[in-house]
Amino acid sequence: MKSVMLFAASLLAATSAWAGPKVELVTNMGTMQVELNEAAAPATVANFLRYVDDGSYEGSIFHRLIPGFMVQGGGFDTNYQPLPTYSPVVNESNNGLKNVTGSIAMARTQDPNSATRQFYINFNDNHSLNGGRAAGYTVFGQLTLGEEVLEKMAKVPTGMNLTMRARDVPKQDIILQSVRRLDPDAADSGSKTAQAYATAPVATVVKK
Length: 208
Description:
- The chain is an alpha+beta fold.
- The protein has a single domain (2-186), classed as Cyclophilin, CATH 2.40.100.
- The chain contains 3 helices and 10 strands.
- It has an 8-stranded antiparallel beta sheet with strand order 3-4-6-5-7-2-1-10, sandwiched between helices.
- The protein is globular.
- It starts with a helix and ends in a 27-residue tail after the last strand.
- GO terms for molecular function: peptidyl-prolyl cis-trans isomerase activity.
């Protein structure tokens, strides 16, 4: 009940704060929608939509899950192999958007300007990720549909994965089956052509 109330409060704040491109994320556990804030995080939103438009999020997985914290994905295929990336995007964490329940943000390494394709969705209000004197993790949108899917994800058991050599890996695959824009005005602005990729360090969201 608490998580539902927190999501409702976050949703109300989001819908009153902006109206930006909407993206549908169809997973094998259900469908979610996120609304992006390109006014507050223009470079990050453009970066995220680049991967949406080229179709490379489709078939990727949520590879890291910490109950009560967040679920992270978009960077690996179902064989736990890293997917190619475009160049990193500049950190925009100082944009006034917060890591609250249902918000979507970019994962990165210790380098603030290292975010590429991996993103995460907050299960709770994670204020420690907002930064302060140091750069935080860039929030660029908010879940507007599918809170029950997010809650279902949070209950998936996790453990050690030898292929990834990492903990907190879901024991049940959570797959992004389809990721597409829902904003008709933006439908033709994304490039579908293949472009040069670069390999980047594995991103992570540090639980502080």
